[in-house]
Amino acid sequence: MKQRLISAIKYILLFAAAIILLWFSFREVKWSDFTEGLKSANYTLISVSMVVSIAAFWLRSLRWRMIMLPLHTGIRRVDAWDGINIGYITNFAIPRAGEFARCGVITRKTGLSFEKVAGTVVLERSVDLLSLAVLSTAIFVLQWNRFGNFIDKQILSAFGEKFSAGFGIVAITILAAFAIFFYIVYAFRKKHPVFRKIADIVKGVLAGIVSGFQMKQKWLFIIYTILIWICYWLMSYTTILAFPSVAGLGISDALFLMVIGGFGWAIPVQGGIGAYHFIISLALATIYGIDQTTGVVFATISHGSQALTMIACGTVSLIGFSLFKGKSPSL
Length: 331
Prior knowledge:
Elements: H1 2-26, H2 31-39, H3 43-68, H4 77-93, H5 98-110, H6 114-142, H7 144-187, H8 193-213, H9 218-242, H10 251-266, H11 275-288, H12 292-324
Helix pairs in contact: 1-11, 2-12, 3-4, 3-6, 3-9, 3-12, 4-5, 4-12, 5-6, 6-7, 6-8, 6-10, 7-8, 7-11, 9-10, 10-11, 11-12
């Protein structure tokens, strides 16, 4: 009961955060201007963007399957596809629960332990985080004169030196606490059943991570990763082309908005709602001098098309998973 109460409070707080960010984004936007902006978009190009996003989902499922194959050779492409899609749709209900949901799909389909599948997700997400960090660094180093102002004034200065120092102390403290905890677990794992269970979970997660380094055709994994980010880039650029008020932006601007938007999706609110709108409209206003209404309309179209695709694919996969369970066709 206590755990459910904590989960409910966490859900409410995150939902409230999403609403507050939406309010900040829309607070000066007139409804008539907003609807006119929506009408001005080229929805044929938006549809192209949605098709590209489906291709990104498929590539992500293929890449994830490669990590899992050393653990279980019977994992089918459709299993990984369903796991990815169900994970996406779950995030719209409960932030960050999607990672657990897709682990559950594979566990149910194959019988693999949840901990081992979780390890493959940790590895995959680490690759995504590294990719985002590399892209961010490349953009801001190569075009600091253009994009550095946004990072310096809108993000870094917003936290301030005291917050940054405090955050560093907290981070070090947390890492130290984790190190002490895992040492205690390791030292007493044979004497106490609780510590033994924790050690088994950690061992399973590590086995999942290690499986990624045992995969065949590692070069194909790298190609999949590059193609996934190219798809994200194309989604961003296609959306720019679809919206007349920002159609003058180029491919480098699409890459910048893709990276910034990635941070919006990463914020733990339901489906990136509010956070994505806020950071994209802020970036458009700061870098390009685009008014708030136009920025919010663009963010709404970009986020809405991606969200609709995730929900549609997630619904189809959820229905298929519920109906067929272990009877999915081999793909």
